Amino acid sequence: MRLIFKNLNVLRSTINAISTSIEIKEIVESAGNNLPNLFDFSSFGVFWKEDLLLFLYQEDSCPPPFTQEVVKNMIKVFSVLGEEPIEEDRITLQVEKRKMRPKQMMMDPKATLKSHLTLPLTVEGEILGCISLNSDQSNAFDAQDLQFLSVIGYQMAATLKHFQRFSSIKNIAIYDTLTGLYNRRYFEERLGMDAQKSFYGGTPLSLVMVDIDHFKKVNDTFGHTEGDQVLCRVSSLLKSSIRKKDTVARYGGEEFILILPEAGLEASFVIAERIRRLIENTLFEVGRAQINLTVSMGISNFPSHRAKSKEELIKMADQALYDAKRGGRNKVCIFAGKSAPWTVPT
Amino acid sequence: MASLVREDKGGKWSSDLILDLYANLLAEIWEVVSALIGEAILAFLFTLAIQKLGEKYPFLNSLKVSEEGVSLEGVREDYRTVAPVEIHRGFQSLVNHLSHLFSALAEGVINKELFPKVFPKFKEAERIISQK
C-alpha cells in the first residue's frame, strides 16, 4: 500500500511538472527527471509529429545501436497507428543522457531493445505523436507501468495540444496571412527591440522600405488573385535576399520593410541594390503572361541620420522611398534630409 | 441475405444473439483496456480499427465510438438483415485487429489481461453460428 502511495505521489508530481512546462523540450525533461522513480527503463522517447521531433531521454550507458533500435521501433509503431510512414532521416533527434543506473548495472555495449511500451499522444481523436518506454530487459513492463504511462501520456498530449493552439494564435498575431512574411505589428515590435539595442549600444541599424512600382496596373490588368501571387513571389525573393539576422515584413499593400541590424549605410545599400536588381531581372508569371517588375527603395540608418526614435527612422526611410519614386522609380535612395536625395544611377 | 437470418427456439433472431454476444465482449474489452490505457487512446484505437475494416465489413461503420464506450445500436438498426456469420466474421476481425494494435503498442501486456476474457466469447459465437 505504501508503495502505491509513493508511486501516486511521483505520478502526481510528474503530471504537475508536465502541465507547467512551457516548451516541448521542457515537457520531456520534466517527465524524464521523474520517470526513473516510477519505471525501470533504459530510454524514454517522445515523438512530436508536427515538427518531426524525437526526444530521447535515456540512460547514459545506452549504446548507439540501442538508440537506433528505439528510434526505428517508435517510427514503426507510429505507422501502425494509421499514420503515413515517416522517413527516419527527416526526423530531428535530440538525445538527453542521464546517469540513471549504478555503475554495476550499466548497459552492455551490445544491448538490444527487448521490451517497450508505446502509446499514442491523442487529443480529441487527433494523433499528435507518441511516447515510449524502452528497455534492454525482456518483459520489463507490466500492467501498472502501462497505467502510469497512459496517465503521463494523457497529460503530455493535453499540454502539447495547448502549445499547438498557442503557437497557431501566435502565428496569426505575427505573420501576414497572404505572404507568410512578418506583419506590420510584429515589425514594429521587432524594430523596437533592435532600435533599443542600437541606440544604447551604438551599433548601426538600417531600415529599407520597398515598394513595387506600378503595382496597381498589375491588379487592374490581371485581377487581384494574380496580384496576390506577385506579392507572394516578391516576398519570397525578399526573404531569400536577406541575412539571417535581418527581418523582412509586409508593411501594407505592396510595401515591404527590412530591418538590417548592424548594417551601416554602405552595407544596407549593397543589400538593397542586390534586391532591386534581382527583382528587375526576374520574370513574373501572371496568368498566362510573363511580366517584368521593378521596385523602389528608401534607406534610413542609425546613427548616420541621427534619428532619435524608431518612428523617426521609419519616417526617414519613407521619405527616401518617396524620393526614389519621384526620381523615376526602380531606384534605391538613401535619406538625405532636406538636401537632394542620394541615389545611384541605374 | 434475409434468407440466412433465421429465428432460434427462443424466438430471437440469431443476428441479435451474435450482436448481444459481441456487445458484451466489446463492453468487456472496453472495461479492461480503458483501465490500462485510458478512454481517449482506446477510443482512438477502436476508430482506427473500424476505419481499417469498414470497407470489408460495412456494418462496422455503424458502431458509435466515444470516450464513454462503444455502442452497437446503429448496427442493430441498420443491419438487421446481415447474415450472422458475416457479423461474427466482422467482429472477429475487429477484435483481432485491436489485439494486433495492442500488441504493437504494449507487446503482451494488454493481451495477457484480455485473452482469458475474449477467447471463450469467440468460442461461444462460433457455437451459435455452427448450430444454425
* Secondary structure tally: strands of chain A: 13
Instruction: Please mark out the parts of chain B with pLDDT under 50 across 5 or more consecutive residues, or reply none.
Output: 1-11
Average pLDDT of chain B, rounded to a whole number, is: 85
- N→C terminal distance of chain A: 84 Å
Number of domains of chain B: 1
Element pattern of chain B in H and E:
HHEEHHH
Based on CA atoms alone, the radius of gyration of chain A comes out at 28 Å
Q: Mean pLDDT of chain A, as a whole number?
A: 90
Specify the CATH homologous superfamily of the largest domain in chain A.
Answer: GAF domain
The major pleated sheet of chain A works out as: 6 strands, mixed
CATH-level-2 architecture of the largest domain in chain A = 2-Layer Sandwich
Strand content of chain A: 15-25%
CATH class designation of the largest domain in chain A: Alpha Beta
Summarize this, please?
The complex is a heterodimer of chains A (346) and B (132). With 346 residues, chain A is of the alpha+beta class. In chain A, 45% of the residues lie in helices and 23% in strands.
Relevant terms:
heterodimer; A: 346 residues; alpha+beta; Beta-Lactamase; Alpha-Beta Plaits; 2 domains; six-stranded mixed β-sheet; 9 helices; 13 strands; 45% helix; elongated; B: 132 residues; mainly alpha; two-stranded antiparallel sheet; 5 helices; 2 strands; globular; disordered N terminus
Question: How would you sum up this structure, described in words?
Answer:
Chain A has 346 residues and is α+β, with helices and mostly antiparallel strands. Chain A has helices at 2-19, 24-34, 64-80, 143-174, 184-201, 215-222, 224-241, 265-280, 310-326, and strands at residues 43-48, 53-59, 92-98, 115-123, 126-135, 205-212, 247-252, 255-261, 283-286, 289-292, 295-302, 332-334, 342-343. Chain A folds into 2 domains: 2-172, Beta-Lactamase, CATH 3.30.450; 184-343, Reverse transcriptase/Diguanylate cyclase domain (Alpha-Beta Plaits, 2-Layer Sandwich), CATH 3.30.70.270. Chain A is 45% helix and 23% strand. The N and C termini of chain A lie far apart (84 Å). The relative contact order of chain A is 0.09. By secondary structure, chain B is mainly alpha-helical. Chain B has one domain (11-131). Chain B has a two-stranded antiparallel sheet. In chain B, a hairpin with a 2-residue loop joins strand 1 and strand 2 (69-71).
